[in-house]
# Entry
Amino acid sequence: MNSINGIEKKTGELEEELRLLEEYDIEELCSVIKEVGFSCTLCGRCCTNEFNGHVFLLDEDTERVRRIRPDAIVPAPFFELCDQNGNFYVSGYALKTKENGGCIFLKENRCTIYNERFSICRIYPYMLHREYGEDGKLAWRQISGLNDHGEYNTDIPDEDCMKAAEETIAYEKAFLEKEIEFYNDALRHFTESGLKPVRKVYDQKIREFQAGEPVTVFVHFSGKFEKNTLKKSDYISA
# Structure
């Protein structure tokens, strides 16, 4: 992102996404969940970064991790903005992983904090956001990792389908609201501080980060930016 206008544009896109989400028919998601009939086989693959990237945390999730294991969180790895001074900005925290790519809370393919698991873990593999498909068309995507794990065609009771759909929509709404708040607060911070996002600086600092150099990352949490200094190696649990 290369300008203040870029932040405003991104905010507008997210607001439109939220509007479309609020108009989405929950019965459609229920029917997809019912038709797919996903059943977990406890393979643990969804809890590895090879399969699913990072675990993004909503603010309530971050608060929970800080109670359980404060050293388990890091700034989410895909930094959204960088100012002209080389400081990154990101919309939230994520979980660290082990050297083998597994979640820090995964042991012998089982979640060690299952009853305290986080928002995105609770709704997985269901989701509801728009993506471009292989046909190049922008459409709603409802299931993650389809045909890559688990079993299908299980008979899921209607009330369970509705519960899963409600929880999924609630998560996606909370995620979009968090992203919108991040960009609004970033815009305010940049404007008041005389800062601007600079893509050239972003690319330079990312190269330094990938080479093992420390960087400064301001993480958006509870309406404020928390300053973190970290290296790429900090994303792996000791």
In short: The first strand starts at residue 56 and ends at 57. The helical segments are 4-23, 26-36, 49-52, 59-68, 119-123, 158-193, 199-210.
